[in-house]
Design goal:
The chain is α/β, with parallel strands linked by helices. The chain contains four helices and three strands; from the N terminus they run βαβααβα.
């Protein structure tokens, strides 16, 4: 099982699969980007998941940490330097 999963897009449809491979104490990091380098703004997770309909997906969502790569790019130029 994985201790850390980094999801660049943050698509809720994949959460059930992430639950299956993530350790129970694992961390899930959502970067919320798209393939064209734009920020992906997902709809509210509460609207998407129902504990009764998708236990696995809602469990991953509760363990998720959001990381704004665009904000970091602007604030920490040295990290992204070629």
């Amino acid at each position: 099982k994985m201790d850390v999963i980094i999801d660049t897009v943050g698509d809720y449809d994949s959460y059930t699969s992430f639950y299956d491979v993530m350790a129970s104490s694992g961390r899930f990091v959502r970067m919320n980007t798209t393939s064209c380098g734009e920020k992906f703004v997902p709809k509210h997770a509460e609207d998407f998941f129902s504990v009764w309909e998708d236990f696995k997906g809602s469990s991953v969502n509760r363990m998720a940490v959001d990381y704004d790569i665009f904000d970091s790019f602007h604030k920490e130029k040295e990290v992204f330097k070629n």
